[in-house]
Queue: 4 jobs
Job 1
Amino acid sequence: MAGQKFQYDESGGTFYYFVLSFLALVLIPTTIYYWPRKKKEDPSKRKEECQCPDCVKKNFILANAEPYRMLKSVAIKVTIVLGWALLLFLTYRVSQFDYEMASFDPFEILNVPPTATQAEIKKAYYRLSKVLHPDKETGDEKSFMMLSKAYQALTDDVAKENYEKYGNPDGPGAMSFGIALPSWIVEKENSVWVLGLYGLVFMVAMPSAVGVWWYRSIRFSGDKVLLDTTQMYFYFIHKTPHMLLKRALMVLAASLEFDKRHNSQVIERQSDNDEVPALIRQLPNLNEKCKEHPLCRMYSIKARAILHAHLSRMPLNAETLERDRQFIVKKCPYLVQEMVSCVHQLVMMAYARRVPRLPSIETIENCMKMSPMIIQGLWEFKSPLLQLPHLTEDHLYFMNKKRHVKNLQQFAQLKPEESRMLLKNLSDFEYENIMRVLGKMPLIDFSIRCEVIDDENTNVVTAGAIVTVTVTLERKDMRSLFGDTKAPEKQGIKDEPNEEAEDEEGGAGAAAAAVPVKKASAWAKPRKGKGGKGGKKPVNNQKKKPAPPKPAAAAAATSATAAAAAAASTTDDQTVANSEAESDAGEHSDVESAAGSGSEEDDKQGRNNSSLDDDDDEEWERLQAKLNKRERLEGKSRMSHAVHCPYFPEEKQEYWWTYICDRKSRTLLTAPYHVTNLVEKEEIQLKFTAPRWPGVYTFTVCLRSDSYLGMDQQQELKLDVQKAPAPPTDHPQWDLSESEPEHTDQQENLSDYTTDTSDEEDSN
C-alpha cells in the first residue's frame, strides 16, 4: 500500500472551500435574524392603543431611545451585503478550479476519438507538443505534463493497464491529505508575522475578552442584579423583619445600580447640587436625614427623591432629572423581584433555623406593592381609577359622590349612559380613550384545587403528606364587565357576610368539612377589620399569633390547603343532606340531621364511590398531564399582555405573583410563584408538606399583580388535617424507639399554625 502525503494548499482551492463553507454557515443565520426589518403597523391595532398625551410622550421616548438606531441598521445591512458579495466571489473562484486528476481522460487531452489508432495518437501528440512544450513561446509546463501523461497512458502497456484499472497511469497513488491553508503561511519569511498574529489572537485578545466577560458576569445575579445589591437587601430585610412600605422604598432607592461607583451608566451632573435639594423641599416624608448607610448616601437620597416624584407624578427637568427618572424606573421591576426573592430565602432560612428572626408576610407583600406603584406612577393610597388616562381627582370625587364608584371593576359595570354622564365634562375622544384602556385591562378568574397526588386517597390530607395546590388563572378583558350591573351578585359578593355567619353557626361540623371559602371576584375590594373572607383578619386576631412556624410547619400550610379542596368534593352531598334535614326538623343539630337522612346519604355515598372508581384512570391521566406540563414550562415565556403604563418608560407585560400564607401567624408558607405567561389560562402548582399534627388550619391563597393597582385577590381555606396512619411495627427493618419525648415535640409544634378554638376542641 502506498504511503500518505500531507501537503499545504498550493493552488488555494482547499482553502477557498473552507472559507466558503464557514462563511455560508455564519452568513445565512445572520441574515435571517439580524437583517433590519421595518415593522408594518396594523391600523386596527393602532386604533386600539391609548392616545392620551402621556402615552404619546412615552411612544416618542421609546422611538428615540436608541439615537444610533438608524446608523446601526445601515451598518448591519452593509456588512451583510458585503458578506454575500464575498460568498458569491468565492463560489465563482471555486467553480473555476481545474482538478485534472479527478477527471483524467487521455483521449480528451490528445483530442482524439477512443477508436484512434497508435499512429493517430502519435501524430496528435507530436502536433500538440510543438505548441505546449515549455521551450516554445506558447508553451505551458502544466499542460505539457498532462499531455505526456495522456500519451504514456495510451501507448505504454503498463501505464495503460494502470489507467484501465485505477483511472491513473501511475497506479494506486498515495493517499493525499490537503490542509486547508495556503502554503505562504508556513513560508520562512512570513513566520514572524504569522506567529505574531497567532499570539495576539489566542494569547492576548481571547483571554482578555473572556476575563472581562467573567469579571462583569460574576458581579450580577441571574436577573442582572448586582450581587452587592442582593447582599444589601438581605441585610436590611434581616434587620427589619416587619418592613413597612415606606422603608422598603428607601431600601429600593439605595440599590447600588444607582451608584456611579458600581454602575458606569449612572450620570452625575453639576446641576444635581441645585436641582436635587430643590426637589427634596417639595417632597414630604422623604426622610432624607436618615443616618443609616447606604440610605444616607447622596445617590440613595437622589434616587429616593426621584422615586417619590415619580409616584407623585411630578414634572421634572426633561434634560436632567427626567432622564434620571427613566433610568431608575426601568431597573425597578428587576430590583423588586430580587427583593421578593430575598425575603423568601430568608423565610426558608428561618424555617431551617439558620437565622433567628422570621420576616413577616407584610414585608414580602410591601415589596410586591412597590412594583405596580412604580409601573403606574401612583401611590398605593391613591384611587386605582387614576390608572386610566384623562381622569383627575375632581373626576374621582364626582364619581364617588354620584355613583359610589371607587375601583375599576365598579366603573366597568356601569351602563354606558351612566359612565358617560359621570364624565360629561370630557370630550368624546377622551371618553372613548378611557373606555378603550379600561376594556383591555385584566379580569382574572382565580380558583384553586388541592390534592395529595402521591397518596391513595387524593381527597384526604394526613399529617406530613406532600400536597399539590393547583392555582388556575383565567384571564379576560375588563370589557366583559361593561354594563353588567349584576356581576357582583352573580359572584356572591353581597352574600359573603351571611355565608360566614352560616359557617360560624355550623360549628365543628362545618369546619371539619374543610370547604374553601367562596371565591372573591376580581372586583371585590378587601374588607378591612370585618373578618370577611375576601379581606384581612382583624388586627386583634393577628396580634394573638403564636410563635413563628417551624420548618415542618411551612410544609404544613400547603397540605392544609390541599386537603380543603379535596375534602370539599367529598362532602358536598353530605352538606346538601344536612341542609335538607335542617329545613324539615327546624332546630336540629348537624349531627342529628345527618343521622336523620342516613339512607339518603348512603345512596349518595354509594353513587359517589362508584363514580370515583370509574374516573380513576381519567384522574390519573389528568394529574400526569399537569406534571408534564409543569416540566415543559421550565423555559416559560415572558410574553402575556401589554400593560397601559404611560409613566413607565418601557414596554411592560402583565405578570402576577401567587403564594399561600397564614394571616394569623403572619408567615409565608410557599414561595411566591412569578406568573409571566398568562395569556388566556394558566395552571400553577405549588407543593408543600402538611402540618405534623391533626387539626383545622386556616390559610390564605393570594394573587397579586406586579403591573396594576386594585387587581389583587385572595381566598381563604379551612383545612382539616387528619391523623396519619400508624406505620407497621412488625417490619424487621424498622426499629422505632418508644423513649422519644413525643409530648414535648407536640407541645412545641402546636403553635406552628393558628386554629380555631372550637375546631381544636371538636377534633380532640
Job 2
Amino acid sequence: MTWSSALRKSVRTGLTVERTTLTPLLALRSALGVAIVIGLMLWFGTPKLAVSSAFGAFAAGVAIFQRSWRPRPVLALAVAVGLAVSTFLGYVAAHDHLLFAALLGVWTLLAGMAWAIGPVSGLVATQTVAVMLVTVTLPTSVSGALHHAGLIAFGGLVQATLIVLLPIRPWGLQRDALADALAAEADYARRLRHDPVARFDPQPLMDAREAAELTPRQARSRPRQLGGPRGVAERIRPVLASLADPVLGAPAEGPERDRARDLLGAAASVLDSVARAIRWGRPVRLSAEAVDTLEVPESGPILDGAARRSALRLIALLGDAVEATDEPVRTTAPRNGEPKRETKGEPKREHRHLLRPSVPRLVPVVLRALRREARWSSPIGRHGVRVAVVALIGYALGSALPLGHGYWVPLTSVMVMRPDFGQTYSRGVGRFVGTVVGVLIAGALMALFHPGTWVCAALAVLCIGLMYLLMGTGYSVASACIAGYVVFLLGIAGEGWSQTVQARVALTLLGGLLAMAAYALFPTWETPRLRDRLADWLEANGRYSLAVLGVFAEPAEARPRRVREALLDSRAARTAWEDATARALTEPVRHRGISRTAERAAESALATMGRATMLMEAHLPERSTDPSKGAAAFAGALRTALPAAATAVRERRAPDWSAPRAALDAWRAEAGDTGVAVRGTELLTDALEELAAALSPGPGGRNRAARRL
C-alpha cells in the first residue's frame, strides 16, 4: 500500500462512526460519579480543586468501560492509585524543568511498555502520563502534591463505591462472552448445513475462556450458569465439524446427509436457546421441533459409522449444555467458605475454575512481560522508546510556544500513539477533528450564554456522560465530547473560553502531527514479520497435530491436557497471524518476503491443517484401544520435519514434507487400516503440501496457490 492510500484509509477509519450497543445505565452511573466529585469540591472547596479532582473520576470511569474481566471496582481503584502516584510525582518534580523532563521520559517509557501486559493496562498507563502533564501548571509544594493526589484518588474511590452500591447487570461481561461463544457455534452449525467445510473463528471461544478465569473471591459468587457450558461448548465444536465433514462424517448426498443437516439445525436451535438463557440469567426454553429432531429415530434415515458416533456424542453434549444452564442462578460455594452439604443420593460435584492471579500475584507476571518485550526488535519496546521521545519533544515545544496550555502537545501525542501504524494515524485524525468540533460547539455555548460556575459544571457532566455513552461509536465522537468537557471545566475555573479554543485546536494539531511524524520516521512495520508469524502458526499447529496423533499412537498413555494446551497454543498463534495481517493491510509498505496471493493461500492451508486435526480429535480412541504403529510412524516423521519446515518458511523457502507423505503412504498400505485417523491424516498431509505449494518461490508456486484459492 502506498503512503497516499494508507493516509486515505486512516482518515476514513478515524472519522468512521460505528453503530454499537449503547449502555445508558452504565454511562449514567459513571457520569454520576464525576458529578458527585465536582459538586462536592465546588460546595466545600474551590473551582480549581473541582477541576483537578474531576480527572480521577473521569479516568476511572473510562477504565470501567474497557474490555477487562477484572471486577469493575478493582479497575476503578487501580486507576485511582496510578493517577494519584503520577500526580504526586509530577507535582514534586514540576518546579524543575529538567527534573520533570527526566521523570516524564522514564514514566512515558514505562507507560508505553505497559502495552505488553494488555490493552487495558496500556490505556490506564497512558492516562497516568496525561494527568502528570496536566499537573505541570498547578502549585508544586509537597503538601499541595499530597492534597491533589488524594483528590484524584478520591474520584476513583467514588466510582468504585457507586459500582458496589448501584450494581448494573453483575457478571454481564462474562455472560455476554459465554453467550457469544455459544451463539457463534450455533451460527457455525447452520453454516455447516450448506458448507460442510465452513471455517470457524475461534475468537469467541478464546474470549469465553479469558472471561472464565476467576480470582478466588470471584469463584465464590460466580453464577452457576457460567460454570459448565463453556467446557461443553469447547467439546461441541469438533463434533459439529466431524458430523458435517463429507470424509469423516455423513456422506455428501443422500438420506444420511439430510439427517445430518437436521441434527445441525437442531443443534443450532439448542445452542441459541442456551446462549439466551446465559445472557439474561433465565431458564432454557427449547423448541419442540429441535427436541424431536435430537431423539434417536426408530425408523427413517439413520447415520452409520463415524457419523453415527458424532451424532450420538453431539446429542449427549447438547444435553449436558442444557443441564448445566437450566438451573436457578446460585453461588458455587457458601460465602463463609464452609463446604456445601450434599443431599443423600446426589452425586458429588466439584466446582472448578480457571485461576486468575490476584493483584499482588500479578507483579511477577508483569515483570516477565516487560522483560520479554524489553528488546529493540519488539514492537512494544520500540513503541515505548518512540512515545517517550515524542513526549519530551512535545513538552519542549509546548513550553516554548507562547500559546499557554503547552502540555496539550505531549498530551495529545501520548493519547494518540499506539504500537501499530493504523491506530496511531486514524486516532490522530479522529482526535483533531473531534477536538475542533467539540471546542467550537462548547466555545459557542460559552460565548452566547456566559454560563456560571454551576451551569458549566452541569454542562461538563453532560459532555462526559455523552462520552461514556458514545465512546464505542468512534474515537472522533469521544474526542469531541472530551473537548467540550475540557472547555466547560476550564469555564468552572474562570479561564477565557476564546483563548482555550484557539490554543487547544492549534496545540492538538501540533501534537497529532508530531505523533504521526514520529511513526513515519521511526516505524515498527508488521509486514516484514509476516513470515515469522506464519512459521509460529505452523509450529503451533504441528504441536497440536502431534498431540492428537500421539493419542492414536498410544491410547493407554493419552493426556487430554496436552491436547488441550496444544489447541490453545494453535488458536493463539492463529490469532496473532490474523492480527498481524490486519495491521499489515494498513501499512504503507510493500509486502516483502510473501505476496498477498501466497499469504492467503498459506493461511487457507494452515486453517485446513488445524481443521483436519480437530476432526481427528473428535474421534480420539479409548484407552483400551490397540496402539497404532502407523500413527506413531507418521507422528515421528512430522516431528522430525517440522523444525526444518518452520525454518524454511522464515527463510523464504518451500518446506519439505516428503518424509510425512512417505509415512502416510506406508500407513495407508497396511491391510484393513482405513479408519478415521488415516483419513484425517490424509487431509492434514494435503494441507501441508498446499502450504509448500503456496510458498514455493517462482511463478509456478504462486500460480498453484492462486488456483487453489
Job 3
Amino acid sequence: MTEFKVWAPRPQKVRLDVDGTVYPMTRSDDGWWSADVDARPDARYGFILDDDAKALPDPRSPRQPDGVHERSQLWQPDPGAWTDDDWPGRSIEGRAIYELHVGTFTPEGTFDSAIEKLDYLVDLGIDFVELMPVNAFGGTHGWGYDGVLWYAVHEPYGGPDGLVRLIDACHRRGLGVLIDAVFNHLGPSGNYLPKFGPYLSTGSNPWGESINIADADADEVRRYIIDCALRWMRDFHADGLRLDAVHALVDTTAIHILEELATETDALAQQLGRPLSLIAESDKNDPRLITPRDRGGYGMTAQWDDDIHHAIHAAVSGERQGYYDDFGSLEALANTLKHGYYHAGTYSSFRHRRHGRPLDTATIPATRLLAYTLTHDQVGNRAVGDRPSQNLTFGQLAVKAALALGSPYTAMLFMGEEWGSSSPFQFFSSHPEPELARATAEGRKREFAEHGWDADAIPDPQDPETFLRSKLNWGELDDGDHARLLRTYRELLALRRNEPDMADPWLDHLKIDYDEEQRWIVMHRGALAIACNLNADEVTVPVSGEVVLAWGEPVVSGDATRLEGHSFAILRAVNS
C-alpha cells in the first residue's frame, strides 16, 4: 500500500485519482488529507478538489512527466543509480563555482549532455557546478525562475533520473553540485497551490504575489519550503543551494525562515556526514545573512556580492547607467575589494537612500562573499542579453578575470565567460498559454522602452530563436583569443589552488594601491601582487618581481613594471 497525503485546508472535499481510479480521502484537524491505496511504483496520480472535474498535480510532486498542468507520477531513484558513497563533500568557501543553464549549456540542453562537458570543467579548475533552477515550470524552455512545482525536476532536461545521473557523475569527478532554488514567488503557468491552501500572502514583489511565510497558517508553507530545500540535498545528493532573491522573503517572525533553514541544513549535513552550503542572493548588503547564528546572524554559508561585480564591470567597461552610477572609479573598486560592500550604510544614488551595512572584516572571512564578473542576471537582464565579451576587448575581459579570481573572495564564473563566449544570454520563455505568452513579450518590450531602448530591438522571449541564440558555441574554444583567454582562466584558477598567499581569506590582510588618473590598480596578496592596467595605453606601475602570470608582455625594470594597455601581471616578490 502507498500512503498519499496532501495539505489542503481550503477545499471541503478532496479525492485521489490514481491511474484513473478515484478514491476518497480522509481529512485530519490540521488540514492534511490522506488515503492508503495499492498503487504501482510509477503510478500517475492527482487530487480532485471539491467538485472539480480535473485532477490537479501534487504540490509535493516527485515527477511531472506530462508537464505542470497534468497529474503527478510516483518516483524513487533506482537504488543502483548512485555510485557516490565515497564522496566526502566540501564547503564552497574559497572554491570556484561554475553557474550554468542546462538548456543552453550544450546543443542538446539536457542533463546527460552536460555530463559530457564535466571533464572540461575539471580541467578548467572548477570545484562546484551551480545549476540554474531545474524545478518543474510551464513550457519546454525558460530560465526556470517561474517554477510552480518546486519538488519536481523539469522533464525536458531529463527529469529526476537525469538529474541523479548528472550529480552522480559530478561527484565521481570530484565536482560538487549546487542547485538554484526559488522560494520567493511562483510562476504564472500551472500555479495551482492557492487552490489547496494559503500559500500566498497579501504582499507582492517584482515577480508576483509573495509567499506566505509569516501570515496566518504560514507554518505549513514554511515547512513546504524547508522540506523542498532539504529534498534537493538529501534525495538528490546536492551539496548545497543558491537561494534566489532572499530579500523578497518577507518574514516578520522572531526566527527568520533563512535561520530556520540554515539550522536544519546543518543538522542534515551532520546526519549525512558531509558539508552542505547555502548561498543567499540578496541586494540588501546585510552581513547578518552570513553572520553565524551564535552571533545573531542567520548562518548562511555565503552570499552573492553584486557590489564587487558592479565595481569591476563599471571600472573596466566605463558603463555608468542604472545601478552602475555610483561605481566606475578606481577608488570605488579598491574600496569594494577591500571591504566587501561598497554600499555599507552609504547613500545609493540608484535607490535614492542609504543602503547596506558594514561587514565585520575581522570576524567574517572574504570567502563568505562571492566575486564574479558576470552572472545570468548581469547578462540576461540587459535589454538584449549581451555579454561583456560582445562589447569589450579580450584584454579587458582578462583584467576583469584577474580582479575577480585574484581577490580573496569565493569565485564564481558564468558559463562561457572563460573563453569570452560570443553567444548572448537572453531572456527566453515558452509559455504555452497564448495570452501569457503575449503579455510576457509585450511586458519585456515595454519595460526597456521606458528606459530608452528601441522596443523593436528587444528580443521576443517567446520566439524559439531567442532561446537558440543563447546556447553556447563550443566551437569557439580553440579559436585565437578565445583559446588564449581560456588558458588565462585555467592558470588563474590554478594559481588560486596552488599559491598559499591566494588562500588567505582575511580582508584585513589585503593591501590595495591604485592611480585614478593612470587607471592602474594593484592587489597585494602576501608575496604576490596582482597589477591591472585598465587604461587603453601602457602604464608603469610601481611594483616589481618575478612574473608568475600575465596577459600581454609586462616589462619589469627596477622597482616598476610596464604594463600594456588593458593587461595584467601577477608578480612574486623576488625575496619571498
Job 4
Amino acid sequence: MVLLSAPLSAQEQGRADSAVACHAASGTERTFADMTSAVMWTCEPRGFQTDRPVGWLRFDATYWQDGASPRFFFSRIARFETITFAAIDESGAMRTASFAEDEAETFPGGPVFRLPLPELRPETQVLLVRIDRPHSAPLLAEARLAADPDSLHWSMTQMMVLAMVIGMLLLPLLFDLGFFAVLRERFVALHAVMVIAMMVYVLFAGGLISLVVSLPVAVVAIAGPLAWAIGCGVSALFLAKFLEEDAQSKQMRILTQATGIWTIIVPGFFALQLHATQAYDDRLYFYTFLPTIAVISAALVEAVLRGSRSARFVTVAWIPLILASIERLWRGLGIYVGPPELDLLLFVATGFEVTIISLAIADRFFAIRRERDEAVESAMELSRLSERDPLTGLMNRRAITARFPDLIAKGFDTFALVDLDRFKQVNDKHGHQAGDAALVAAAEALRVRGSRDSVPVRLGGEEFVVLLRGPDAINRVEALRQAIPLHVARKIPGLEAPLTASMGVVEMPRSATADMTFGEFYARADKLLYDAKKAGRNRMNFERLKVFSEAPPSRRPKRKRAA
C-alpha cells in the first residue's frame, strides 16, 4: 500500500548498490527459464502491476559490476506469499533461494525489510526475483540490492521529522484525556481514537516501530493501512458529533456517519491484504477512500456556509491532510511518479491536523462550558423563582415543604401560623392593589433583617408561617405579630382600621421535632389559630408540647386490701 510510508531512494541516499532495471507480471505458470528469454519486460519506473499472481524483477549484472556484489535484497514492507531469487550465470547455471513472508526481516531502518541473496559471482549475468502474491506496487517499485545489511535506511532528517510528528500527536492525546475527564462529550473520545490511530499509522508506516521491536512483515504491513482506514473513518464520525447541531442538515449528518462506518469497514478490509484478495485489494484500498474524501469535503463546505465556527477550525486542519491524501492516492494508483520528499507530506499533515483539531476542541470545550454554566444558572434561577412567592419574595409552600426536615434538624422547633384579620375588607374597600401592598408590608414586618433564627413563608392568600429557633421564641414571634399593623399603617396610609394579625403557635421540644411533619405542625397551629380568631382576633394562641420518656405516675388512689 502506498499509504504505508515514504519510499526509499537509492540515488538520494547513495547507499543502494543497484535499483530495479526491469519488471514484469505473469500467472503462476511462468518459470525462471521462461523469464530469461521473455520479451514481456518493462524497463520504465512505472506501470508496476499488483493485479497478477506473480510480479517479476530483473537486476542485470552491469548494475553492480563496479562495486561489491550485492548480498541482500531490500524493499518496502508489504504483504507477499513468497519471494524467490535466481542468480543466473553466463553458463546458464542457476542458484536459487526462496523465502516465505514470515522469513523476511524487519530492522531499524525505516519501513523496509531484507532478505539474503544467493551467491552472486563474477560470472553472474542477471538476478531474477519472483514475488508471489505481491499486495503493493511499492514492494516492486522500491526494491533494491545492497552489499551491506544496514546500508538502506532513512536519513536522520526523515527520522527526526517522524519523531516530531509522534510528539505532536502525543500532546493532543493528553489534552483529549483531560478534556474528557471534565467534558463527557463523545466527540472528545472520538478524537482520542483518531489520535491513537494516527500514532499507530506513523509508527508502523514510517517504520519507527522497528526501532523498538522487530515485528513480522505481515503485522507491520497490515497495521499501517488499517490504522489509516480506522483513523479516517473515526474522523468522519468525529465530524458529525463535533459540529454544532445546526451546522449540518439531518441528511448530511447521517451521510457523514455512514461514511465513517464505510471507511472503517471497507478500506479496513482491503488493508488486511488477504492473499485471496491480492488481485484487487491494492487498487480498491485507494478507490474506496474516494467517497470518504468527497463526503467529508461536502460536509465541511455545508457547515462553513452555515456559519459554523467549529467547521472553520476543521477546514484549516483538514485541507492539508486531504490534499496530501489525494496526492498519495494518485501515486498509489500509478498516475504519476513523484520525488520521495513528497512522501513526508502526509505525516506532517497528520501532525498538523491533530494539533489544530485539539485547538478546536479546546475552543468548543470552553464554549460548551459557558453554555452549560449559563444553563445551570438559568435552571437555578428558575428553581429559585419556583420556590419564591412572586409578590412578597418570601419562600412559598413548595419550598418550605421540601426544606422542612432540614430546618427541623437545624433547630427550628417553633411553628407560627399567621393570618391577617379581615383582609378581605381591605380588598373590597381599597382595591386589590392596596391588598397586595398590605401583603408586602406584612411580609416585611415578618422578615427579621440579618437573622438566621427566623424563616418567614407565605403559604398563600393572607396566610403566612414563621419558623423560629433559639431562646424566647414565643415572645419574639409575638413581637413580629404586633409589628404587622404598625408597618402596614406606615406603608399604606388611609386605611380605615389597623390591619391586625392572629397567630397559632406550636413549640415542640427538640427531641420530638424529628418525628413531626409539616402537615402535623400545620394542623396543630391551624387549630390554635382558629381558637385565636374565635376569641376575637388580634391575638396569639400557643401551646408548648411536652414529651414524656415514660408514662406519668397514676393519681388514682390505691385500694386497701381486705383483711
